[in-house]
Amino acid sequence: MSIPESPLTLMEEDRDELEALTRRASTPQSLALRARIILMLAENVSLREIRKSLHVTRTTIAKWKARFEENGMDGLNDSPRPGQPSKYGDSTRKVIRNTAIMPPEGKKRWTIRSLADSLNVNRGIVQRVLQTCNIKLI
Questions:
Q1: Are 87 and 121 in contact (CB under 8 A)?
Q2: What are the pLDDT digits (tens) for 100-125?
Q3: CATH number of the domain to which 106 belongs
Q4: CA torsion, points 37, 2, 9, 29, in degrees to nearest 10?
């Protein structure tokens, strides 16, 4: 992946947003690094200097330059990861939480198996939702 030597031009609002990303403590470091790469390219810093100061490869620089040129600020965000999307959404999680709070009729408490069977949901999903919500079936 080669990097064309044409300088990268930034609009003022993009520059401001990139600088803010590099300063903000809450910005993920991967995003801050990408912002620094783009800012340095816009300042016409040599590729050697960028590689040396940010400890990145030419490929990394080329990738983020191309994505920024294609998609602007949105290009700096991570792409969706491959894999099967979640089978159970927020509505299923909400039903599991709400059902787990009240014991079943005629019983003192739910078990993971009985809760999963009554909702027709995988036991692993029930267990993960209960752990995430810090709900104990005692």
A1: no
A2: 888 888 888 999 999 999 999 999 99
A3: 1.10.10
A4: -20
